[in-house]
UniProtKB/TrEMBL annotation:
Belongs to the ZapB family. NCBIfam families: PRK15422.1. This is Cell division protein ZapB. Residues 6-68 form a coiled coil. InterPro entries: Cell_div_ZapB, SNARE. GO terms for cellular component: cytoplasm; membrane. The gene is zapB.
Length: 80
């Protein structure tokens, strides 16, 4: 009788070990995925910053061109 109880206990312990092993593997996979996603986020932030800088430069260029165009239009009106 006690041998059967021992076998059942052993089976439950083995099942618990198997479950723990699977959960540890899943944790490692999730850690790797988290690390990968963190890198992607950092890269996206870098890209965003670069795009914001480029946007600011383009806006500045646009302003310069608008000022030059206004100046040229003013000169043309003076001629007429």
């Amino acid at each position: 009788m006690s041998f059967e109880v021992f076998e059942k206990l052993e089976a439950k312990v083995q099942q618990a070990i198997d479950t723990i092993t699977l959960l540890q593997m899943e944790i490692e996979e999730l850690k790797e995925k988290n690390s990968s996603l963190s890198q992607e986020v950092q890269q996206a932030q870098g890209n965003r910053e670069a795009l914001e800088q480029e946007n600011a430069q383009l806006k500045e260029q646009q302003t310069v061109w608008q000022d030059r165009l206004q100046s040229l239009l003013g000169k043309m009106e003076e001629v007429n």
